[in-house]
Amino acid sequence: MADYKFEGWMGIDENADKGNMVWQEFQPKAWEETDIDIKITHSGICGSDLHTLRSGWGPTPYPCCVGHEIVGIAVRVGSKVTKDIKVGDRVGVGAQSDSCLGRKGSCENCAAKLENYCPHFVGTYGMHHFNGDKSYGGHALYNRSPSHFVFKIPDAVPSAYAAPMLCAGITTYSPLKHYGAGPGKTVGIIGLGGLGHFGVLWAKALGADRVVAISRKADKRATALDLGADEYISTDADADWAQKHAGTIDIIISTISSSKMPIGDYLSLLKLDGTLVQVGNPDDGVFQVPALPLILRRVTMGGSAIGSPAEIVEMLQLAADKKVTPLVEERPMKDANQAMVDMDNGKARYRYVLVNEQHL
Ligand SMILES: [Zn+2]
Ligand SMILES: [Zn+2]
Q1: pLDDT value at position 86?
Q2: What positions does the domain Enoyl reductase (ER) occupy (predicted)?
């Protein structure tokens, strides 16, 4: 039997995002022999944590322990786990912790190894497992997740880098890969935050010809170029940017999660048959999308949700091979409330990762 307790930072009402999470014990899902328990060392803070803590995307089932960029050590591995994971291995869990795969009447998306589009998607926190138990996230001491959604971390990828890759990283990697970002392509990344900075890193790692980072303020120019961007557009400071760069980009990933962005101008940046993929999910209203920029260059606008387990494995290997180095700031787990407030105030450069120092 487990000799450890599941404790973590719990949101208990919709003011939880304002520095009001409380440290509490919780009951993880009932153990199944396909599960893995993880002694958490690192847990990245995602924008979704804030949206969920404040019920921004609909009512949250409080108490809720957020955090879905989890890295730690496997401390219990079920007898029916078929993956090559042993007690003591460094492992991670992203934003999804279960799907209908392997269950009776399993869906066609799971059959196609696109479990992230399963209609029975179970999020790593704030949702319910198939047995009815609530899912609890990573701003905690331990996590229990079904092994299909637990990944071995390659030795070459430090834990503090691997953690944010598991949500911010895969959310940008998946659409870039899907839409063919690589040699011969120009890629645009809108928003240079946690997600966007990964977008720039992956686009370069995948071998895109040109990467254009697009953000509001001028002050992220140096960082964007350091990350590998070939060009930086400040929509505040660069006059006539939309006209100047019109029709020059093949694939745009928009990481903005505000409905107030100039979506028509962004669409006008695309070449013929270009694609804009929206990965940020605003909680402040809906977009108004003008039709003309879609029509003029046969442009497609779409969306994308995290990535599949197979893509996560592929991404972690790319990170190891290309020594992908995200910009993370480690914060002690005990300071989670302050870190959450700082994140909300846009102070993260570019991802906060909470660290359980006693587990290192
Ligand atoms: Zn996330
Ligand atoms: Zn499914």
Answers
A1: 98
A2: 19-354
